[in-house]
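Researcher: Before we compare anything, I want clean individual predictions. No alignment, no superposition, just each chain on its own. First chain goes here; please echo the sequence and then give the structure tokens.
Model: Echoing the first chain and its structure:
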Amino acid sequence: MDRMKTFLIYVLLIIGFFVFSEFIINVGLNSTYKNMESKNNIEQVNIKQAEATSVNGRIIGTISNSGTEDINGKFLKVDIYSERDVFLGSKYYNIENLEKDGTKDFEVYFKTNYAKYYDISIVNEKKEDNVDIDIEFIPKDLNKPEIWFASIVTILILW
């Protein structure tokens, strides 16, 4: 009977540690993101969330095609600037399959230091002449199963 009590205590401690660590990780990560400011506002783009830390950031929004001009095949250009208005880099997001009077969600995750401002514009073509200053864009945030998988693999390697 004592062995079952000990086992139950261990299980409760592991579950408690899991809940505590999830809370601390989420609070810690989300508290490091600060809001980014926009340099301009265009009517086709509605930004829902624009945040950055000292090393990475994310811009989430929607593109709407409510105008008279077709914006299929064009590019959404995202320029990132520092607090002192230094250009850090840019990335192009391809706008495709957006029908007239339709909307499309987009997410841009990037990795650069001290991003404070962003500038979004719709352009007709990509310009590949300044590849050197392109910032590294991350495809997406890791979700919980991916984090769990990476943690388990790390624990198994270290064990």
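Researcher: Okay. Second chain, same rules.
Model: Second chain and its structure:
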Amino acid sequence: MKAPHSVVSNQQYNFGRYNSPFRDVNLLDAPKSAPINAIKSFFLREWQAFQIFTDGFFGIMAIYNTKKISLVQFILYDINEKRKIKFEKKVAPWSLEIAKGLFKTQSVYQSSDCTMNVSHDLDQGLLDIIVDIKKGKNHPSIKAKLSGQHNVEQFTPIVVCLPFNPDRGMYSHKCLMPLKGSIHIDNKEILLNVSTSNLIIDDHKGYYPYVTKYDWLTGAGFDKQGRRIGFNFTDNQIQNKEVYNENGLWIDGRLYFLPAIKMTRPNGYEKDWIIKDEKGKVDLTFTPVQQNAVYLNVFIMKSDYQGPYGYINGRIKTEEGNIMIENIFGMGEDFYLKS
């Protein structure tokens, strides 16, 4: 179903799952979330995150603003060498610009040591990323110039407006698309070709609960038939998850919506994660190869985060039959934030 023009209309959320973008991402018009826009904005968590998949490498870029915790991040993981290059910087909330929608907008952070600029123009199917990070004590210099084919007519997005309750909701636009460009790590150049590289965008805003919890899994690559394949699974605090979720599978640009899932870790975070639904459509195993954990407990804020990278295997059933997922690289998250 195509999305309506705005996330919020007549002070009502347009809750649902859609296969086209909202032109007006207007969560500040949401009902009862706060009396004035300045306060609404303070409680609105918003970010743009990107997962980069190419031969031998997995990358993450994020411009992230929860107003209480704000950061910019660029991570590149060498799958063969099992080596991670990480730049992460906590920044002032007012130093970030997060795009409002994806039609002729930008997300920007700029300082003396880091520039991140993401330009969007969905009318032209364009998504351009420029990164310029100076060498630091714990990271090399990083430069990237990347272009995604954000053609939503050819590559269908998962677009959602989901309820935490009738008066509080979230918006997300996720899309798998071909990617081209280059990444320079010091003097080493990594070239990305559209035939072998993928990008998943998450354009995200929401009035999340004070205590936020969710499980998440994403991955992308190519199957044995050479088809471009990717998926997103989230289990969060949304009401009526069988109707309202952001779970889906992409195959060569076509989107298949999927049911609610549960993620379990019977042997801990370092062993296999199990992802299943109650209808027998999703049966996946995520095997971590690189652990990432963050713990924070300061005053009224507490964070407990597990975000490993690894391989996903199993099957996903669609109306076309069973789609086999074999050694697709991706990442999982177990996220807890009290803020």
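Researcher: What stands out in the second chain?
Model: The chain has two domains: 1-208, 210-339. Additionally, The radius of gyration is 19 Å.
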